[in-house]
Amino acid sequence: MTQISTLLVANRGEIACRVMRTAKAQGIRTVAVYSDADADAPHVRQADDAVHIGPAPVNESYLLIDTIIQAAKDSGADAIHPGYGFLSENAAFSQACADANIIFVGPPEKAIDVMGDKARSKRAMIEAGVPCVPGYQDDDQSDATLVAEAAKIGVPLMVKAAAGGGGRGMRLVHDQDEVPNAIKLARSEAENAFGNGELILEKAIIKPRHVEIQVFADSHGNTIHLGERDCSVQRRHQKVIEEAPCPVMTEELRAEMGAAAVEAARAVDYRGAGTVEFLLDQSGSFYFLEMNTRLQVEHPVTEEITGLDLVALQLKVAQGEPLGVAQDDVTLTGHAMEVRLYAEDPADDFLPSTGYIDLWHPSEMARIDSGIATGGEVSPFYDSMVAKIITHGATREDARRQMVKALSQTALFGPKTNRDFLIDALGKQDFIDGQATTAFIAENYGEEGVDLGAHDFDAFAIAAVLQHKLRQQAAHGLALNVNPEMLDWSTNANLQTVTQYASLGEATDSDGAIHVHVKQPGHYHVEGAGQEVQIALLAITGDTAKLRVNGRTVDAIYHSGGRNLHLALPQRSLSVTDMTGLSAMEDMAGGGTVVAPMHGLLLEILVEQGAAVAKGDKLAVLEAMKMQHEILAEIDGTVETVAAAAGNQIAADDLIMEITADEAGEEEDA
């Protein structure tokens, strides 16, 4: 047995912070690695030492095996924890650690090699007798063979990258004519994300549950499972809400799935933490999906219901010690939920959102694993998940209610987030009833993004009152010898301020003007858009406020910057700009102006200047946060100019091309 004295965490963000937390608790010295983009990131500040490993792009920093190994040597690390993503399921990295006499906190090279390839792993599971989804997973990777095999399998069909995970390199096909393009996109995305364009095909099982089993094995012949997690609520094949136990699990089914997962681990001489993922159909049949040979993002829900620290177990096994936990020792207590807070725009097909973090205000009533901080940045170079919120209760409903409350007390201002969507999803009846499947988001929100409806006027009224108060406080700070008790006081009973919001039209047909009438200090009568509301400001601090709105108490989180105000209310978030006194701004965007929807790498431009295009035609392909996004024409017309070049980084709202609308189209619009 070899004791770990210094642990290098070959990752970033919340998982790096999470691993370091346990390592530090065990007296292990920790080392962070960081790219140019992460020089001042929380995981760097949390570590005992840190090593710079290169520029922001992952293939120039976090994916460089030799650089990571050298960082471990230079910092005196005798072990490396890979976290998840990046090099965590890279067999060559595991072997490189062994060659350098550095402990790899993960399974041996053989297990990663087999299970990290969906084709090989599926063949191995078929041989081991583990139930598998019908499909194609052979070596012939020609487009012609894949198209032919797809026709044999039939639609609906999943085209999937054999390597990697996280929903990348994956396409759901409903029409045989879509297969060639799905193969092209999936292969390109897989090559860019994993350096491996091999694909497999699987019959798509419609509306299954995504249920996974946590397994653990040591080098002394002990292999156990720690129960299951239900990860059915997903968007773009990436998990959004996870929970344990699975709402429809029975003791008999758990024993059967657990035994299959343990057998899968034994088939590849597994060691350490791993997760065997299954699809569970409505009849109770389950099928092997893949095995993740690493710690999962959603491991906290298993920790909450078992009382075990999975990172501590990983370190224990990596040091050659026995698990110390037998299958009969595993008990599941209560219910746990986890939601993933993504920097993304649910209303715009969940496109990633990047930028500076004006305020990170996490709830204090839940476990929150995060790797962000106020003043930091959500970079376009990495995954869009920025934090995880975890709750645990005696029952599933206890855990769900705690989660809704914790989310209502959490705010991330700057980039857009899925916070409001998560609150809304947790309140859907089929989720409350434990009936959510992988079709949950599509069934409840459609295929074109999430529309949560217009904001209530109350939200704009609260924003106007807060801006009134904040400006008043700012003015008072510049004044001399003014008693604070005199604020909001006037001999003129009609004292009022006017705020004009450009976005108020989403709720009403008003011009956005809101009148805040001061009744007495701290009490306001607010009018606008033909509506009225009474607001009392009970308390205000640096980023929170308590108000009484029409007799009901409301807690708010806010951040103010000049004319802009970010506001998070218990159910909805709102960002407004006070346009009072400013001239109207022309809308520079239009159907003929094609701009980047987010920061990213412009992989392809598919049309040239002078080309005729029709609405829906593919114009360009943008890669952001390890996903590829097709940019489509919004009008019929002719490409007037191409302002961007493929292969270059491009910022959100940067011009890509201009399209002149067809005259016929303009006449029809008129």
Automatic annotation (TrEMBL):
Lipoyl-binding domain segment(s): 583-660
ATP-grasp domain segment(s): 122-319
Keyword Protein biosynthesis on entry: no
CDD domains in the record: biotinyl_domain
The protein, known as: Geranyl-CoA carboxylase subunit apha
Keyword Nucleotide-binding: yes
A Pfam family it matches: Biotin_carb_N
Cofactor(s) listed: biotin
Matching PANTHER family: CARBOXYLASE:PYRUVATE/ACETYL-COA/PROPIONYL-COA CARBOXYLASE, METHYLCROTONOYL-COA CARBOXYLASE SUBUNIT ALPHA, MITOCHONDRIAL-RELATED
Residue ranges occupied by any Biotin carboxylation domain in the UniProt entry: 3-446
Listed InterPro entries: ATP-grasp, BC-like_N, Biotin_BS, Biotin_carboxylase_complex, Biotin_carboxylation_dom, Biotin_COase_C, Biotin_lipoyl, CPAse_ATP-bd
Gene3D superfamilies attached to this UniProt entry: 2.40.50.100, ATP-grasp fold, B domain
Keywords of the record: ATP-binding, Biotin, Ligase, Nucleotide-binding
